[in-house]
Write a structure and sequence with these properties.
This protein has 117 residues and is mainly beta. 0% of the residues lie in helices and 54% in strands. Strand 5 and strand 6 form a beta hairpin.
């Protein structure tokens, strides 16, 4: 059973930066596809980005501003968020799956990111 624990959320002004972390345990971290999702109030959860075997993929609205990386030795996933906008405000979730990020098997509990304008 894989466990995921996010950290690093908080309140930041528009234009600022935050780095989220997701610590994984209980699985073979290096073999999993890892991803970030977010859910804003009153909206459905949406894909933010993913990483596997060094390849990354992002939703259009965060391309050029967000960067996903992973440290397999530390079993940790990161999301560097720069040039934050008010519309980035959401609960951010880490997710993992052995095969595909489309329907992840494992989820973290989420961390709140609030961007003030």
């Amino acid at each position: 059973q894989v466990q995921l624990v996010e950290s690093g959320g908080g309140l930041v002004q528009a234009g600022g930066s935050l780095r989220l972390s997701c610590a994984a345990s209980g699985g073979t971290f290096s073999s999993y596809v890892m991803g970030w999702f977010r859910q804003a109030p009153g909206k459905e959860r949406e894909f933010v980005g993913s990483i596997k075997s060094g390849y990354t993929n992002y939703r259009d609205s965060v391309k050029g501003r967000f960067t996903i990386s992973r440290d397999n030795a530390k079993s940790t996933l990161y999301l560097q968020m720069d040039s934050l906008k008010a519309e980035d405000t959401a609960v951010y979730y880490c997710a993992a799956d052995p095969w595909s990020i489309v329907r992840p098997s494992y989820w973290g509990q989420g961390t709140q990111v609030t961007v003030s304008s």
